[in-house]
Amino acid sequence: MPATTELSPEILAKYEPVIGLEVHVQLLTATKAFCGCSTRFGSAPNTQVCPVCLGLPGALPVLNRRAVEFATLAAMALHCEINETSIFARKNYFYPDLPKGYQISQFDKPLGEHGWIEVPTPAGTKRIGITRLHMEEDAGKSMHEGFLDSRERTYIDLNRCGTPLIEIVSEPDIRSADEAYEYLTRIKEILLYTAVSDCNMEEGSLRCDANVSVRLKGAPKFGTKAEVKNVNSFRFIRAALEYEIERQIEIVESGGRVVQETRLYNSQEGRTYSMRSKEQAHDYRYFPEPDLPPLVVSNAWREEIRTTMPELPEARRKRMVAEYEITEQDAQVLTGTRAFADQFESAARAAKSPKRVANLVQGELLGRLKAGNLELEQSPISMQGIAEAADLAESGELSSKMLKQLFDRCFETSEDFSVVYEREKPQQISDSGALEKMIDEVITANPKQVEQYRGGKKTVSAFFVGQVMKMSKGQANPALLNELVTKKLDG
Fold first, then answer.
1. Alpha-carbon span 361 to 428, nearest angstrom
2. 164 and 99 in one domain?
3. Do 329 and 404 have their domain in common?
4. Taken in order 375, 380, 383, 389, is the CA torsion positive or negative?
5. Which of 40, 426, 472, 478 is the most exposed place for a label (fewest CB within 10 A)?
6. CA-CA distance, 166 to 75, in Å (whole number)?
7. How do residues 459-478 score in pLDDT, each as one tens digit?
8. How far apart are CA 237 and CA 182, in angstroms?
C-alpha cells in the first residue's frame, strides 16, 4: 500500500533508502541467562520465575555458560571478531515488564564486532556489514485486554524475563526492502544451521527492529531515520519498509521534515503509525554490571567452540553443486534446512545418480508434501526410499509414469516406497518383440504423422512414443521404446 498518494517511478528513483536492522534472537538454552529457571515456551504465566529474574533484593546473577557458547558460535558464523574480554552493563529504563528497572546487556565492549554476511541482489552478491553482536537478557511480556473499551487491563507475564538473547546490529548498508528481506533470510538460515536458536517468530524467538531513512541519490549525509518496531514476519518487514520509504519520500518531496520517531506497522492496513517521538536520544545511563565480572572467552575456549561449527549453508551449497553435479537452484532448495540437506546427502551418496535424487525430491516429493500440508518429517517416503526409486528409474526398470503412480500410492497408504514397490511391483515391458508389435500398430493407425516424420519433422517421434506408452499403460521401457520407434520410422 503506498503512503497517501501514488509516487511516480521517476520520483522514487531520485531517492536512496538507508536501512539498518537490529535483530534480537533468543538462544536455545534450557535455562535462563543468569538463573536456573526454565526457558520453555507456553507455560502458565509467572511460573518460571525466581528471585534472580524477578530482581528481588539480595539475589545475584550467575552467567549461563551454554548461552556464552551459543552466542560465540553465532558470532563466528557471522564472521565477527570475537573480543576476548567483554563487559556486561546495566541498561536502565522503567517499563512494567522489567522488574529490576534495568536490563543486563553489553554496551561499549560487546562479545563480537565487525562481522558480515553476503546476500544476493539483482546486481550480484552484496556484503552487508554487522556492527556488533552482543549478549543480553530478555524482558517480560505485557498483554493487553479490552483495549478499545473502558475495561482495559494490562497483564504481565515474567516467564520470558531473563531468557538469553543476542542482538545483531547491522551497518546501515541495506538499500532496499528486498535487501533487508534477503539479509534476514540469510541470518535466520545461519542461526538455524548452528542450532543456537529455533528462530520461531510466532513465539518471539526472533524479533526485528528496522531503522530507515531516505536521501537524494549521491547525497553524503543520511536523512532523519524512523524506527519501525514489533513486526512479526519477514514478509511484513519488507512491506513495512516499502511503505515507510514511500512515506518519507512523500514528506520530503512536499517540503516537509521527517520526524525521528518510533513507529508500529499495522499489517491489516499495510501502513506504519507513530508510537512515540525519539527526538531526544534515550539516556539509558549504562554502567558496568557490578554483580558480574568481565566475560573472558579465551583463545582455547574459542577454539573449543569453533569445533562445533557445522558446514554453513553457502559453503554447503557450493560443495554440493561440485560434488553432485546439481544446479545452484537445486542446491538452494535442498539446503533449506540442515536436516533436509543431511537427508538429501545421505540419499545422494547411496544412489547411482545424485542428480536424479535431486529431481525426484523437488519434482515428486516436495509437491506432494505441499499439497498435503505436510512437513518433510511427516513424509511417508524416506530418503532411502527416494534413493531406491532413483536407482530403479536410472536403470530403466521404472518409467516416470510408474514412479508417479507408486509415489501417489505411498501417500495414499502412508507407506514407504520400498514397501509399496515390493507389493505392487509394476512389470516394465522390455521385450523388443512385444514393443515392436505395439509400435507397428501405432504407425499403421497414424499415416499422416509418419509422413510428417519422414518429411523432416523428427520431433513427431515423441507422438509415437506417447501413443505406445498409453497402449502399454505406462509400462514400456522408455529408453528401449525411444530406440525402437526411431528405428522403425527410419526403416
1. 23
2. yes
3. yes
4. negative
5. 40
6. 9
7. 888 888 888 888 877 777 77
8. 11
